[in-house]
Amino acid sequence: MLLRSRSFLPSAARKGGLILIASTCLMSCGGAALAQSASASADAVPSRVQGKAAQAASPRAVTGKPAAKTRNALRTRQSAPIHSGESEGGSEAIVVTGTREIGKKARDSIAPLDIISHKQIAATGQGTLRDALALLLPSLTTPTAGFDAGAMTDTISLRGLNPNETLVLVDGKRRHNTANIYSNPGPQQGSTASDIDMIPMSAIDHVEVLRDGASAQYGSDAVAGVVNIILKKQARGFHAQNITGITSEGDGFQQGVYLDGGASLGSRGFVHVSGDFVHQDHTYRSAADNRTGTYQNNILSQPEQTRESVAVNAGYDLTDNIQLYALGTYAHRHAESYQNYRLASSLNAYPAYKAIYPWGYSPVETLNENDFELKAGVKGDFRGWHWDVSSVYGRDYDDIGLINSVNLSINKATGRTPTSFDVQGFNNQQWTNDFDFSRKFEFSGWPHSVNFAGGASYRYEGYSVGTGSPDSLYGNGSDALAGTNPGNAGNYSRDVAAGYLDISTYLAKGLQLDLAGRYEHYTDVGNTQNGKVSLRYDITRRIALRGTISNGFHAPTLAQKYYSALNISPTAARGLIGAGSPGALANGSSGLKPERSTNAEGGFIVEPIRNLHVTTDIYQINMRDRIMPGGNISGDTARGALKLNGFQLPDDSGSWNQSAITANWFGNVASTRTQGLDITVTYLTKLGAFGRIDWDAAINLNRTRLSHQATNPLTGAPLLNAASIAYLTTAYPRSKIIFGGNWTHAKWIIGLHEIRWGQTTNQLTYYAPGPYQFSTTHFLEYQNKPKWTTNLDVSYRITPRWTATIGGNNIFSAYPNRVPDGNRYLGAPQYYMSTSQLGINGGYYYFRVNYDL
User: Rounded to whole angstroms, how far apart are CA atoms 384 and 85?
Assistant: First the structure.
């Protein structure tokens, strides 16, 4: 693959150390108040407002306890088990996401927070973290299916917003993003978020999901919330897990092996090593192809993929007050995704290819991905100050190719018949340096302690687009996906410097205040200032109110600014060109500016009786200048824009319906308002000699409406059509409800849960012959009705070390609504993929075996 990318950081990045040192000096000398660091310290925790709140954080910072205690505190924050309550992941879990205080419980959080333990993740039977979380959290959604390379990257969405609006942390440090952009139309279009499945699932202790705007706390792109993945740090033991599964249709076989174990580094440290091997086969859900009446077109399918990943996590107490820590992760993925079937008749004029594909062919898009991240840091205590200095470098490299394809131009000119091509290469790298500190103060005249935290960070971001191989570029290019030409390749980068302050205290008994402010400077899009004010009032021991208002900022990603590609179907072509490219600028593009948001949230926590815990939160997220492809052009206009960017269309494209040739680019297309409601309920029923039942229920109601749409400055036309508006407003479920329970008795655990997937609404293109065929202005409104699915698992502890589980998700095999025949391109995609409701695979049944040493 000809990816022309620099392997080492450019000179701009080498300035990072100087910027970080300067920022640190400013902060430590009482300089300007800067906002909260992009990478949350592992010491950060939500707080509960009660009369003894002054004792809740590390008391040593206030009272100056002996150094021997300090070493224990360091080890506790780095490696101690997090669950101290009656059930893992419950309200008694100690959390590190939400504020900068130390040692708080989930039930005491000042903001909505979900805690998902590794046992809950494993109980879903899913082989990936993404799919497991989708079965556990109503506010979290994943795509129904996916197209092309976008289907081979696992991203998540919170509260009906694009995956780019959710910040992913690992042990409180910002995780790098994927280089593989989701470029196809749909609600995920343009996303290059972190691929959470490139982290070994065996390495995960638990996941903390902050459902609140947190740009001022963790980074300017945490608009919808934060997913903080906490890794295992045990210095002993060994755990092995095997998951074997298959769908109700007998395809999609999945095999996963997950291993992890820990060891001591003398008496002062630990190392924990984890590794995963996961393989999944294709599933096949296409209807018959209109052209042949056969089922040879596999466009509606789950990609095949094989993924190997490993993580090494370590910590060592250099002294009683200072700890060194490090983390390394590496993952490799090979994946394959079907393209539309090409008829044998398309090769009648090319005998050499006709001999290779006598019955036609299905191009297959491939992804070979290498992803790694290295982290090193040192943290400690000094006279009551908790401090943490770290550096994280991550990189994701994607080599995208085609197999079972053709380049008819090469065959016509030279007689050669290549069938495989290197078409695209993408590289994303991120280098983040952080300094964080905190301390709790007592002031005379003020009856409550004040927790003061601050820090600074420098981040380098690099994005590279490589050219395709000569065979993929020659003439009209490789069929299905033309290679990236030199005019659309390049190396791009930017620097981000930031600082933050966070102050929390009690204004009165039971009334907590948390203030956060953040300043960031992007070398390509300028400055941003973000703030957050949170309050929590504990009316009684069992009733509390909480509320937050904040603002956020999401800079356009480098991929959104510079990505270009041309996708070719048998009778259609779709180009996505860079916002600053000649073709886009000639048709009204004005470049990209950041998205901005304002978040407001309020709710209450109630424990009306013992063991019953209820939280209710309402929220509103106003977003301005949302980034999405707009300015849809077609026909000769699209041809001209593609030509300016160096793309050529197939020779027979002149005979196509000209509305089937389209192009667009990323722009600041609209403003939206998202409103919603989250409710969570947990209850414990003790059955004496018959065990216990842990009940749980959760609901998310979510609605997004368009409040403003931008127009093309050249033509005055709206940048969005009805289909694009639907991607923004109704492609995510209107509601999602999860409820059920787990019965535990002796050696048995039986879990039963129901999920109701709410309605989605989309605007479908007409493909059948008629006045609206391939129209970009007239669409069919399609409602994917609510669906119910049932998940059941039965576990038996064979011995103290061996446990076996048999289970199923969607055991009664519910499917999405079928798309009308006239709105399926070539007839095959009977389910609509550009949405985020129920998946296309139907039932999934699995057998799991666990071994603990």
Answer: 28
Q: List all residues 6 or more positions away from 401 whose beta carbon is below 8 Å from its beta carbon.
A: 1, 365, 366, 368, 420, 421, 422, 423
Average pLDDT score, the chain: 87
Contact yes or no for 370/334 (Cβ under 8 A):
no
Under a CB-based contact definition with an 8 Å cutoff, are residues 151 and 829 in contact?
A: no
In the prediction, which pLDDT does 106 show?
A: 67
The closest alpha carbon to 733, from 668, 813, 816, belongs to: 816
SS3 803: strand
Contact 614, 646 (CB under 8 A): no
- Span 312-335, average pLDDT: 97
Dump pLDDT digits (tens) for 794-813. Answer: 999 999 999 999 999 999 99
| Local confidence band at 108 (pLDDT 50, 70, 90 cut-offs) | confident
Residues 84 and 206: their CA atoms lie apart, in Å, by: 14
Do residues 585 and 539 make contact, with C-beta atoms less than 8 angstroms apart?
no
CB 577 within 8 A of CB 640: no
Please give the helix or strand (H or E) that residue 408 lies within, else none. helix 408-414
State the DSSP string of 688-753: GGG-EEEEEEEEEEEEEEEEEE-B-TTT--BS--HHHHHHHHTSS-SEEEEEEEEEEETTEEEEEE
Using pLDDT thresholds of 50, 70 and 90, give the confidence band for residue 46: very low
pLDDT for the residue numbered 82: 30
* Ramachandran area for residue 690 (φ above 0: left; ψ -120 to 50: alpha; else beta): alpha
- List for the chain the helix, strand, coil content (%; round to 5): 15, 45, 40
Q: Determine the pLDDT at residue 826.
A: 94
Q: Which band of pLDDT confidence, cut at 50, 70 and 90, is reported for residue 33?
A: very low
Nearest to 184 by CA among 405, 342, 337: 337
Amino acid letter, residue 664: N
**Which of 214, 152, 161, 207 lies closest to 184 in space, CA to CA?**
152
* Three-state DSSP class for residue 660: helix
Q: What pLDDT does 64 receive?
A: 38
